[in-house]
Automatic annotation (TrEMBL):
GO terms for molecular function: acetyltransferase activity; O-acetyltransferase activity. It comes from Helianthus annuus (Common sunflower). It is found in: Membrane. Residues 198-478 form the Trichome birefringence-like C-terminal domain. This is PMR5 domain, PC-Esterase. InterPro entries: TBL, TBL_C, TBL_N. Belongs to the PC-esterase family. TBL subfamily. Coiled coil: none annotated. Pfam families: PC-Esterase, PMR5N.
């Protein structure tokens, strides 16, 4: 029994002993193997041979996300045709942008690791450039006025919103409304890497002696025009400033609510500032001039006729477009897309975003080709002015109630308007890049105080004046 028991016990013991020994052996091998691998991993020259798989996971989603987050989404196609002149399809809110982005970064790890590799290559190059030729780098790097921060400033605004009655539309003068918060008037833009002289009307007029500055674009261009008139005059009444609209064919046509633009001349320096309404920056022509109900050809590949006529007389040109590129507006205006003098058949252009991109590229290319013939001309494409409809669209209760900026800083290098940036790339037309710096100023819109908006509707597209568009002019002033 004992033996049997012992034998049994011994057997069991031996069996267990064997098992334990095997397990111990496995364990020791496992630990050794782990140590070897761990050391391998820690050895830099070995790791360097391995693909940097882990990098994108830790570093780049954050990078990519921050960059894309502030980009303005291409405008959506759908908008009801009933809307009046200036409200239309709002951009998707920031929150939705962010969400889209997160989805992207999760579903496209391959792209991210590609980006990672490219970026590490770029940063290596940059480093070696810095070490080898620091001066060369400083010289070639153009100043980026779009990167910087908003700072409180006692000497802002540059004119009073109670004044400037001669130029400022009542609907944009928020001081004349029920609004009670005016912190948005007291911020000044400070570019990070460049000096920006303070704007003065006298200095502006001096630089623009015997010259003409023209804004050509939509109602956001008109805001910039009114802003500049107020900045130059300091908001003071100036009876000697001449209305020279007639010189530029800008007379109010019979039956229309307003002329196609305005032009004013400052007699002391013979400086003209004008605005011409061209919402799409292309040539618009009645298809049947004899018919009152004609459709209009929207020649996407031709500049506005006004520009062709008057470019000779313009010294600083500021173009803008963006908020009229939606089906609702096109249908309401009875605009039909034409390319090459014929109705467009190209499906890529037929898409609203494609048409806008095509038109912006076309007009910039045209202006660029004209530059050699006009040596005194400086041409700018102003990037898109962002809108801020939260919790809805312009017509579904979207609001912009905030009384403080979303952020005070813009850190990214690239423009938040990729369409405009790509259009000027490789040309001598400059980008007046105001998208990013305006994107953080959600509190600067007219909001619920618009006297134009129907009850319950807010204007989160146009800006209070004085306000954000003044800064666009300061940034412009720094570049002329
Ligand atoms: C005013 O400036 C224009 C150019 O913009 C020039 O053609 C014109 O001769 C100037 N007028 C005077 C009186 O100097
Ligand atoms: C915009 O238009 C340009 C010129 O027609 C073209 O090269 C580019 O690919 C277009 N970009 C987009 C996003 O459609």
């Amino acid at each position: 029994m004992k033996g049997g028991g012992g034998g049994g016990g011994g057997y069991l013991y031996n069996k267990h002993g064997l098992k334990m020994k095997q397990l111990s052996l496995f364990f020791i091998i496992f630990v050794c193997a782990s140590l070897v691998l761990w050391n391998w991993d820690k050895t830099p020259h070995l790791t360097a041979l391995l693909p940097p798989d882990d990098q994108p996971l830790h570093l780049f989603p954050v990078e990519v996300e921050r960059k894309q987050d502030t980009r303005v989404k291409p405008e959506a196609e759908q908008a009801p045709p009933s809307l009046s002149t200036d409200f239309n399809t709002p951009q998707t809110s920031h929150l939705e942008n962010t969400k889209l982005l997160v989805d992207n970064s999760i579903s496209e790890p391959k792209d991210l690791s590609e980006t990672a590799k490219q970026q590490s290559v770029t940063s290596q190059r940059t480093e070696s450039t810095v070490i080898d030729t620091p001066m060369a780098k400083a010289e070639t790097k153009a100043c980026n006025f779009g990167k910087g921060k908003w700072v409180p400033a006692d000497n802002r605004p540059l004119y009073s919103g109670f004044g400037c009655k001669q130029w400022l539309s009542g609907m944009w003068a928020c001081r004349l409304t029920q609004r009670t918060d005016f912190g948005y008037e007291k911020l000044k833009w400070q570019p990070k890497d460049c000096k920006m002289d303070d704007f003065t009307g006298a200095e502006f007029l001096k630089r623009m002696q015997d010259k003409t500055l023209a804004f050509v674009g939509d109602s956001l261009g008109r805001q910039q025009f009114q802003s500049l008139m107020c900045m130059v005059t300091g908001g003071e009444e100036m009876p000697d400033v001449e209305d020279v609209g007639k010189d530029f064919g800008l007379a109010k046509a019979q039956g229309s609510a307003r002329p196609d633009g305005w032009a004013y001349r400052f007699p002391t320096t013979n400086t003209t500032i004008l605005y011409y309404w061209s919402a799409s920056l292309c040539d618009i022509e009645p298809i049947d001039p004899t018919s009152e109900t004609t459709d209009y050809a929207m020649h996407l590949d031709r500049p506005p006729a006004f520009l062709k006529h008057f470019l000779d007389r313009i010294h600083v040109l500021v173009l803008n477009t963006g908020h009229h590129w939606n089906r609702g507006k096109l249908n309401a205006n009875r605009w039909v897309m034409y390319v090459g003098g014929k109705p467009n058949t190209n499906r890529r252009i037929a898409d609203i975003g494609g048409a806008k991109n095509f038109t912006i590229h076309s007009v910039v290319r045209w202006v660029n080709a004209e530059l050699p013939k006009h040596p005194g001309l400086k041409a700018f494409l102003r990037s898109i002015s962002p809108r801020h409809f939260f919790n809805g669209e312009w017509n579904t209760g979207g609001t912009c109630d905030s009384t403080s900026p979303g952020s005070l800083e813009v850190l990214q290098d690239e423009s938040s308007d990729p369409v405009a940036a790509s259009a000027v790339k490789g040309t001598d037309v400059k980008l007046l890049d105001i998208t990013g710096l305006s994107l953080v100023r959600e509190e600067g819109h007219i909001s619920r105080y618009s006297i134009r908006a129907a009850p319950g509707m807010q204007d989160c597209l146009h800006w209070c004046l004085p306000g954000v568009p003044d800064t666009w002019n300061e940034v412009l002033f720094a570049q002329i």
